[in-house]
């Protein structure tokens, strides 16, 4: 059959390559700054301790780091690999050049919007989904454009059967669309403020259904697709097992979607949902390790090349890191291990094995290999690439191992009791100061890893300068000839399915929907899953404003609001948390880590002056604390201009504010704020420092009111369960 000539679009691949390198450096640099703040809390207080800069505080930089690394660095790296491999696997140029450019520039615009809004405190607070509603809409639109471009290319392909990498790309597009839309359903109340349509327990389940599967279907499945393409290409070996790749794909996408509840073990989530998440999480080890084995055994007969080829070195450590992370994840879903690991730095170390080794090294290897292909020239320096490899590997070890030590240290110190039944380390700060040396080592690891990536940037820039600038690559392939949709003689079922792309996509969609529907629908529709507590009331207007300030400052990055039913936690914090306490929490704020103590029962534990002093200078109330100062809260006036629209929006979500209360909200806010100010003036030191200043309209007052409310509903009536 006569072949057609066409051109692969290398320009779009180069654009994503440069974006990957740029955002990699930026994301890792912010991550290093965040790590250093654990060792030097005042590091970024350039204007002096009394003039701390709000947008440089940990609570605002941490989501900036996670978003920059996940969506900017790894995201661009995924698109880099997909745009290159898809064209060659399907023997077709991307469906539409304009869509390719809109996808690229739209994605970069979203990243820039995130980089501006997150430090400004414009956040929904939901982990890995912090962006506010206008940016969420933009993400969905750009994702749809990417999907049209991908599916359009598949439909106009010149290759009859779609290769395993394409299976994973299809699953990624479908699942991320479903996850992102349903997790980010929110009620806008102003231009950059919204409330999740789910509350409390339901919001927690939906968030971790998304959060766990954002890791699964953004940081794992597309990267597995890249592994299935680039590892055989670089090693010049076929994939070890086609059958194993089939089992790997279908079991992975079916099982992964169920596993989210293992992030919520021992919380107020119903027991049946926790157990379901645990069972499926444990089963995940089989398809995950099947993929790892398929990747590593593809190198059989090519291990001599690993010694000489830096790209293969990156791939081997990346796949090994994937195996380690996907072994540890199921193990952490066992309740006895989760009881040790959750809320500690063990989880941070676990996550970074996946991020630094699996994602970071996989992307680095792809960038090095593509630099030679795209600029038609040898890599500028293999020695520099090898140096990057060893610096990065050492960086991973220096990063993760100290955090594992820190995690076990925290867990065991939190749980130790004296013979008389009191906690050995009753002061939470004792457990913080103990692990600061490990935080210092983590910062050293981050420095090594970032240094290695900067060497990559230099290497690729030098390679590009030495190479050619050809942006369209000539190729040829025979056009597809239509054949019957029925299976032909000798054609296996899956081989037949690989040429029926629409059916393949439908089956993929069904596979990923089942788990989410089974877990989420009953929790939302069956009221008995969240028993009501009659003493739990909606937040007052001032407390609502304080809660929004708490969210803005990212306090939930360090403080949990979930006391688990452990003897140690009940002794340390008070009565364990109940599902019905969170029915008016839009969104939930249970947190995933404790750098500071849990605050769910903090209401009434300290007086208002303690909270005031703690926010102005944490070291004054808690010597050795690594919490940042929040001095801007005494300077900023409360902005209650949207108070009525906030309360009206919450009414539509089921919060029982009456029209009369909404219309009188500002008066109620001022009255409660005056009470807080009067309480503060009981302290002569406060009067001495602030004299006759009117602070009842300052943000600090609202935050104090919110903190003093936490956990007090159930104290008021412990037997109010219906």
Automatic annotation (TrEMBL):
Location within or outside the cell: Cell membrane
Obligatory cofactor(s): heme b; Cu(2+); heme
All residue ranges annotated as the Cytochrome oxidase subunit I profile domain in the record: 1-471
Pathway: Energy metabolism; oxidative phosphorylation
Example GO molecular function: metal ion binding
UniProt: Cu cation binding residues: 212, 262-263
Membrane topology label: Multi-pass membrane protein
Positions bound to heme b 1; low-spin: 65, 352
EC number: 7.1.1.9
Pfam families xref list: COX1, FixO
SUPFAM superfamilies: Cytochrome c, Cytochrome c oxidase subunit I-like
Cofactor note: Binds 1 copper ion per subunit, denoted as copper B. Binds 2 heme groups per subunit, denoted as high- and low-spin.
Record field: catalytic activity: 4 Fe(II)-[cytochrome c] + O2 + 8 H(+)(in) = 4 Fe(III)-[cytochrome c] + 2 H2O + 4 H(+)(out)
Binding sites annotated in the UniProt record for heme b 2; high-spin: 350
Keywords recorded for this protein, A-Z: Cell membrane, Copper, Electron transport, Heme, Iron, Membrane, Metal-binding, Respiratory chain, Translocase, Transmembrane, Transmembrane helix, Transport
EC top class, as a word: translocase
TM regions (residue ranges): 21-44, 64-84, 104-122, 134-155, 162-182, 208-230, 242-259, 279-299, 311-327, 347-370, 390-414, 434-458, 501-525
Entry's Gene Ontology BP terms: aerobic respiration; electron transport coupled proton transport; respiratory electron transport chain
Cellular component, GO annotation: plasma membrane
Similarity field: Belongs to the heme-copper respiratory oxidase family.
Full protein name: cytochrome-c oxidase
Organism lineage: Bacteria, Pseudomonadati, Bacteroidota, Flavobacteriia, Flavobacteriales
């Amino acid at each position: 059959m006569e072949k057609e000539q066409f051109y692969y679009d290398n320009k779009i691949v180069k654009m994503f390559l440069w974006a990957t390198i740029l955002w990699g450096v930026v994301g890792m640099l912010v991550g290093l700054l965040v790590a250093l703040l654990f060792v030097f809390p005042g590091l970024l207080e350039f204007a002096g301790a009394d003039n701390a800069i709000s947008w440089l505080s940990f609570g605002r930089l941490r989501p900036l780091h996670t978003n920059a690394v996940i969506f900017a660095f790894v995201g661009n790296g995924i698109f880099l690999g997909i745009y290159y491999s898809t064209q060659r696997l399907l023997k077709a140029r991307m469906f539409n050049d304009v869509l390719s450019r809109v996808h690229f520039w739209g994605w970069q615009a979203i990243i820039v919007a995130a980089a501006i809004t997150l430090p400004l405190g414009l956040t929904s607070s939901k982990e890995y989904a912090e962006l506010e509603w206008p940016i969420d809409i933009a993400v969905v639109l750009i994702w749809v454009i990417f999907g049209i471009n991908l599916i359009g290319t598949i439909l106009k392909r010149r290759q009859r059967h779609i290769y395993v990498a394409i299976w994973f790309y299809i699953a990624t597009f479908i699942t991320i669309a479903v996850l992102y839309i349903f997790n980010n359903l929110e009620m806008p109340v102003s231009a950059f403020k919204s409330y999740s349509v789910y509350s409390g327990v339901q919001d927690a389940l939906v968030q971790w259904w998304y959060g766990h599967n954002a890791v699964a279907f953004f940081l794992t499945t597309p990267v597995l697709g890249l592994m299935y393409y680039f590892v055989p290409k670089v090693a010049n070996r076929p994939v070890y097992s086609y059958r194993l790749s089939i089992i790997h794909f279908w079991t992975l996408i079916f099982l992964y979607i169920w596993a989210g509840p293992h992030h919520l073990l021992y919380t107020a989530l119903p027991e049946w949902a926790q157990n379901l998440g645990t069972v499926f999480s444990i089963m995940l080890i089989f398809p995950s390790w099947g993929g790892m084995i398929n990747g590593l055994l593809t190198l059989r007969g090519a291990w001599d090349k690993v010694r000489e080829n830096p790209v293969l070195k990156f791939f081997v450590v990346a796949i090994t890191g994937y195996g380690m992370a996907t072994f540890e994840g199921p193990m952490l879903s066992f309740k006895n291990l989760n009881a040790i690991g959750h809320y500690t730095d063990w989880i941070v170390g676990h996550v970074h094995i996946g991020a630094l080794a699996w994602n970071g090294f996989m992307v680095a290897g792809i960038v090095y290999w593509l630099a030679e292909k795209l600029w038609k020239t040898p890599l500028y320096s293999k020695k520099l690439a090898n140096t990057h490899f060893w610096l990065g590997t050492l960086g991973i070890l220096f990063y993760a191992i100290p955090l594992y030590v820190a995690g076990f240290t925290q867990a065991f110190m939190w749980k130790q009791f004296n013979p008389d039944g009191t906690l050995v380390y009753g002061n939470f700060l004792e457990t913080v100061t103990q692990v600061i040396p490990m935080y210092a080592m983590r910062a050293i690891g981050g420095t090594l890893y970032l240094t290695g990536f900067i060497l990559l940037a230099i290497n690729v820039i030098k390679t590009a300068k030495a190479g050619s600038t050809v942006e369209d690559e000539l190729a040829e392939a025979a056009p597809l000839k239509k054949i019957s949709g029925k299976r032909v003689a000798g054609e296996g079922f899956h081989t037949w399915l690989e040429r029926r792309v629409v059916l393949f996509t439908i089956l993929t969609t069904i596979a990923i929907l089942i788990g989410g529907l089974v877990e989420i629908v009953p929790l939302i529709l069956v009221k008995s899953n969240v028993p009501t507590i009659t003493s739990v009331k909606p937040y007052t207007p001032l407390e609502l404003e304080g809660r929004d300030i708490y969210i803005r400052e990212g306090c939930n990055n360090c403080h949990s609001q979930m006391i688990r039913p452990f003897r140690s936690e009940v002794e340390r914090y008070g009565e364990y948390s109940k599902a019905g306490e969170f029915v008016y929490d839009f969104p939930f704020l249970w947190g995933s880590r404790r750098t500071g103590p849990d605050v769910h029962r903090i209401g009434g534990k300290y007086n208002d002056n303690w909270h005031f002093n703690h926010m102005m200078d944490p070291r004054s109330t808690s010597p050795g604390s690594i919490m940042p100062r929040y001095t801007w809260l005494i300077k900023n006036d409360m902005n209650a201009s949207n108070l009525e629209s906030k309360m009206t929006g919450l009414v539509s979500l089921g919060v029982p504010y009456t029209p009369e209360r909404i219309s009188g909200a500002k008066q109620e806010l001022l009255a409660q704020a005056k009470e807080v100010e009067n309480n503060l003036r009981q302290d002569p030191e406060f009067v001495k420092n602030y004299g006759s200043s009117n602070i009842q309209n300052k943000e600090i007052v609202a935050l104090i009111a919110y903190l003093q409310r936490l956990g007090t509903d159930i104290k008021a009536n412990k037997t109010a369960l219906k």
